[in-house]
Amino acid sequence: MDLAFLIAPLAIASLSAAFAALVSVTDRIVNNYGEVVIDVNNGSKKLDVTGGANMLVTLAESQIFIPSACGGRGSCGECKVKVNSDIGPHLPTEIPYLTREQIDDNVRLSCQVKIKGDVDIQIPEYLFKIKQYTGTVERIRDVTHDIKEVYFKLDEGQTVDFRAGQYGQIETPPYAKVKERTQRAYSMSSKPSDSNHVEFLVRLVPGGIVTTYVHEHLKEGEKMKIIAPFGEFYVRDTDATMICVAGGSGMAPFKSIFYDFIEKDKMAERDIWYFFGARTRKDLFYLDEMQKIQDEHERFHFVAALSEPQPEDDWQGETGLITDVLDKYLKSKIPTDAPKEGYLCGSPGMLDACMDVMRSNDMSDDKIYFDKFA
């Protein structure tokens, strides 16, 4: 046997192992940035932190929570922070989520940049109000075949103050092959007045770390961490007609908004059109609740549509893509001369398509509100 066939692979393996060890040692030495200072809002807060982690995580450890719908994966573009210090050029992973003006103004994605030295940043003051809570799962209920309603009771002495429509982040523990705690964003479906509780609608996403945990592992009585509130998705105080569109777990913020309106006796103040799209009858839920609201409030209109109704569904309502149904109603049933505001919650693709329909019906971008989750 030719020993070269044995010696060559062994030599390569030895060199690879040595290189890996060298990289590990170098990483520990080079990336030991020591103690650094983060100056927030021109001295409003000064944080003494250990360098080396990304800015999103480092700020969270100091109880400053930057919005991140994707939990820091770099796929939502929400965790923007203005950096007044020179921390190097923008990374390729940041550029797709930033406008030219933001790049010129040194806005960065906090999940993509490491804290390597003292840094001066600027963030909106309202972020200081975001808190981390601990809640116990009081109830888990299947509302469809792939959406669970999860209702948390916050620990004694904790109350959450949020606007109907905003979202929170659920943190799940390590499980199975997942080795670290993971956060994802979900709209809150509970009423703001129920400040001792938080409710979420969680749809199962194949391969989703947090949704898989919620659907396959989460139990009633379990304690979880929740960070809230985030987002600019809330109803503006005007008398414009509300054009609301959702699909799937996008129902969550609207459930919160409508019941908040009912409690505050606001349902008679403006026209509300709520369009909800689903594929088949098994993907619809809360129909009785929405019908009851419509029966009791004459200015509220609920329109459900199925894109792929099955024979067994015996569906008598609207059919087709929700965008087509929305377009039909904007052209024929909703007064065209009435001022309108759009409120959207669903997949990025659905939101983009709905915005196109709204624009084609003379609704301006500055009157269309949404939180686009990755």
Keywords:
single chain, 374 residues, alpha/beta, Ubiquitin-like (UB roll), Elongation Factor Tu (Ef-tu), domain 3, Rossmann fold, 3 domains, six-stranded antiparallel β-sheet, six-stranded parallel β-sheet, 8 helices, 25% helix, globular
Give a verbal description of the structure:
It is a single chain. With 374 residues, the protein is an alpha/beta fold. The chain folds into three domains: 35-127, Ubiquitin-like (UB roll) (Roll), CATH 3.10.20.30; 130-230, Elongation Factor Tu (Ef-tu), domain 3 (Beta Barrel), CATH 2.40.30.10; 241-370, Rossmann fold (3-Layer(aba) Sandwich), CATH 3.40.50. It is 25% helix and 27% strand. 34% of the residues are buried.
Lay out the secondary structure.
Blueprint: H1 4-30, E1 35-40, E2 45-50, H2 55-61, E3 80-83, H3 100-104, E4 107-109, E5 119-122, E6 131-142, E7 147-154, E8 167-172, E9 182-187, E10 197-203, H4 209-216, E11 223-230, E12 241-247, H5 251-263, E13 272-278, H6 287-296, E14 300-306, E15 318-319, H7 322-332, E16 340-345, H8 348-360, E17 368-370
Parallel strand pairs: 1-5, 12-13, 12-16, 13-14, 14-15, 16-17
Antiparallel strand pairs: 1-2, 3-4, 3-5, 6-7, 6-11, 7-10, 8-9, 8-11
Helix pairs in contact: 7-8
Q: Give the DSSP E fraction (strand runs of 2 or more residues).
A: 25-35%
3D shape: globular
What is the helix content?
25-40%
Radius of gyration: 24 Å
Number of domains: 3
CATH topology of the largest domain: Rossmann fold
Average pLDDT score: 90
Question: Tally the helices: what do you get?
Answer: 8
Overall structural class, as computed from helix and strand content, comes to alpha/beta
Order of helices and strands: HEEHEHEEEEEEEHEEHEHEEHEHE
User: Main sheet: which strands, in order across?
Assistant: 9-8-11-6-7-10
